[in-house]
Model the fold of this input.
Amino acid sequence: MIDSSKTYIWLHRFALFTALATLGLIGIGGLVTSHGVGMAVPDWPTSYGYNMFALPFSIWFTGGVFHEHTHRQWASCVGIFVVILTRWLGGEKSRWPLLIVGGTELVVGLLMFKLNDNLRGAGGFLSGIGGVVLLAGICWIKNAAAPGRLPAMGWWAFGLVQLQGLLGGLRVVLDAQVVAGMKLGNVLGIFHACLAQGFFVLLCAIALLTSKWWRNGNNQHPTVSQGLCKFVIFTTLLIFLQLTIGATMRHQHAGLAIRDFPLACGKLWPDTSVQAVEHYNAERIEVTDANPITAFQIDLQMMHRVMALIIFFGVAMAAWQVRRFQGVRRLGFVWIGLIITQIGLGAWTIWSDKAADVATLHVLVGALSLVTGAMLCIIFCGGITKSNRAAAFA
Amino acid sequence: MNMNTKSIFSIIALAAGLQLAGAGNITGTVTLKGTPPPEKPITPVMEDPTCGKMHTEVPMTRFYVVGANNGLGDVIVMLKGYGKSTGASATPVVMDQKGCLYTPQILAVQTGQKIIIRNSDPVMHNVHAVPAVEGNAEQNAPQMQGAADLSFSFDKPENFLKFKCDVHTWMLAWVTVIDSPYFAVTDKDGKFTIKDVPPGKYTVVAMHRKLSLVTPSPATYKGMEQEVEVTADGGKADFTMEVK
Done:
């Protein structure tokens, strides 16, 4: 068996690396939506008919193809990191499940490749994934499984990363389908965006639970009240709701529904009458593709603004309470700092007429705000005492 | 062919000839009242390394084409509820991709009429037609530099059907698909001619992509209408659209 303390140091570092890679993936995915190039590569899992990993540079570095294809490549790398992380967290016991899953994906992929011309691209892709998973299962290193819930969290990450890849692909393949008056591409894009946030939280949680700080039980807080615990959870859930509203706004692909701040269409509360909306659409000059503005989109943006205020007060109160606890008081300050930055970025997004880099930074800081809240939830409400945590990592 | 059939064909040909003999053109001008919002520079074109090289100055958006005497260009003018499409046999209409811009930006065709999309640029484009009317299929096709022309056609009437490029997101064009041959698009000075309209009374409809949008989702347009009488000398219809 390998020296466990050194293993856990490297396990933690790898988990942190994977989480950071995922943050980067959210950033490049954010750029795809901010630039409106989600369909710049109109097929999946092939890219302009090529194997995804064999797309000529001349096509890759053309306009919006650059963002979308880079997103796909980066996602593939994150997928590989997650498979490695799953194997590492699961220890030797995870070999058989990985061999079975990988073998199945490889065989099914090869069958698709051989039996149906239309499924060659998908078959090639699936067999590639299967090959990577199989390799992880073949890896003969006899490491012990990580303690507690970590192996299960690894398996969750394994499943979610593949689901996320599938959602991203289906967003492209099913883009034109209309269900209940909504383009499926837009609906799947919203799910893809929201799941990305949840997935990022999971990876950060794995990084936290494998950290030396956590293993040594430095953060035990027996005096944390149930009320504070619930308040932090509630505020974090509000942030997730806000991210969902933001994702819904962005996947309307209608540009800015309200183009001024802090006023809204020149008022405290915008006029959303039929005549007013006609006027907004008539006077807007779109430089890049944008669907017409609707009253729903204006209401959605106002909801986003109001939620931002509610979250600001919620996080401010939480940070004020958290300051009493040594070891996490800085996290509380970071949290409120992120929310203030986020409000500033939201305003800047409007003032810059939704500049792609500013809007994407707004997405990234939103992700960090969610993760900070989630980590506080785990720390306060994790229910693990110092003594049993130290024993688990012995 | 027997005598009765010959007679029937002769009568039909005579009737058609008589109709055309009396047919006239509907002419007119669409003017704009009020000050339109200023056009914006399409700066992303210049930021693209390939597309930027094809322009010496930043191209501007062209949503309100206002010419001499406030004439408004790019307005679709058509006869309401008259005529049958001859699109299947009509000459194809060409839309080019030049300088990473669609030209022309506003187009009108008949149902079933071919729209030829040409790529005159030294760069790949992806031609994505996004109809809103059921029965008109959404189509998305890559077009490499130097590739053969693409061909699109639509079976259902639709106002301002959007064409875009997903690779260069500023590339936009709108095609109005009409179920008859009686239509025109105003020129840069707002002038139009609808040709060979048989004598009679008609309703002429004028629509502008920005000024006639009444419902944003799905995008629905309501044009200005005017009654016109067409004689052998033709007919006249002038419109004044107001900035909202």
